[in-house]
Write a structure and sequence with these properties.
171 residues; globular
Length: 171
C-alpha cells in the first residue's frame, strides 16, 4: 500500500465509533474522507449517513491502518486500545501515527508505544476535553502529550477540528 499523498489530504483512519468517535468523524469528514472501523458495523453505517465526504469502511483495524498515514483511536477502554494496537502492529511501519484519544493513563500510552514502536509507528496522546457536541462542530479541545513539533501530521489534523489545543512541553 502506498502511503503519503504528495501534498494532498493525508490518509486518515478512525477506529471506534461510540459517542466521541462519531463526533470526531463528523468534524473530520467535513474536511475529507475518513477510513472507519468499528466492531459494530451499524456504527459505521450511522457515521456514513451524516458524512460530508463519504467514508471508506475497513474490514478490520489492521486493514484500516494499512491504508492510511494517521490512525485515530476512540475506544471505550485502555484494554480495547491495546487489543487494537496489537492488530495494527502487524502492519506498523515508519511514519504511521497513532493518535490515542481514548480515556487512558500514561502507563497505557507506554504500553501502546511498546507494541507499536518496534514497527516504526509513533503514538500521540491527545486527550479530548469537553463535550461531544463541541467536538462534532469542530470546536474540540485537546491536551496533547508531546510538543507540537513532535506531532508530525497529527498536529494539523487536530488543529482543523479544535478550538484549542494544549501541547505539553517535553520533559
Amino acid at each position: 500500500m502506498a502511503h503519503g499523498n504528495e501534498g494532498g489530504p493525508i490518509g486518515l483512519g478512525l477506529i471506534g465509533l461510540g459517542n466521541a468517535g462519531q463526533a470526531l468523524h463528523a468534524a473530520l469528514s467535513a474536511r475529507q474522507s475518513v477510513h472507519l472501523f468499528d466492531l459494530d458495523p451499524a456504527r459505521c453505517a450511522k457515521a456514513a449517513l451524516g458524512a460530508v465526504h463519504a467514508p471508506v469502511v475497513a474490514q478490520s483495524a489492521g486493514a484500516l491502518a494499512d491504508g492510511v498515514d494517521v490512525v485515530i483511536l476512540s475506544l471505550p477502554t485502555p484494554e480495547a486500545s491495546l487489543e487494537v494496537a496489537r492488530e495494527i502492529a502487524a502492519v506498523s511501519r515508519p511514519g504511521l501515527l497513532v493518535v490515542e484519544t481514548s480515556t487512558v493513563a500514561p502507563g497505557d500510552i507506554e504500553a501502546l508505544t511498546a507494541v507499536l514502536a518496534p514497527g516504526g509507528a509513533r503514538v500521540i496522546d491527545a486527550a479530548i476535553v469537553g463535550g461531544v457536541a463541541r467536538l462534532a462542530a469542530g470546536q474540540g479541545v485537546f491536551i496533547v502529550g508531546p510538543p507540537e513539533a513532535e506531532c508530525g501530521a497529527a498536529a494539523p489534523l487536530l488543529r482543523a477540528i479544535a478550538e484549542e489545543i494544549i501541547f505539553l512541553k517535553a520533559a
